[in-house]
Amino acid sequence: MVDPTSDLGEDIDEADAPSCATCGSKIVQSPTHRVITWVEDERVQTRHFCSDDCKADRGEA
Q: Comparing C-alpha atoms, which of 36, 37, 19 is closest to residue 27?
């Protein structure tokens, strides 16, 4: 898994790239990549989206 604070526009191997929570596409060098982060049970959780449309389709604000 890629560090969520890293620049995903750099050379990221597809095997290490996060997947979109809606469509499942690997997010590699995407200018529209979106991430939501929250704390649950004292652990940081993240959800990645390849676009605003996928984020909206999943019901995330």
A: 19
pTM score, whole prediction: 0.73
Contact 50, 27 (CB under 8 A): yes
Distances in whole angstroms, Cα of residue 19 to Cα of each of 27, 39, 41, 58: 6, 20, 23, 14
How far apart CA 54 and CA 43 sit, in angstroms, is 24
pLDDT digits (tens, 9 = 90+) for 11-39: 677 888 899 999 999 988 778 889 999 99
Q: Report which of 23, 13, 15 is spatially closest to residue 34, judged by C-alpha positions.
A: 23
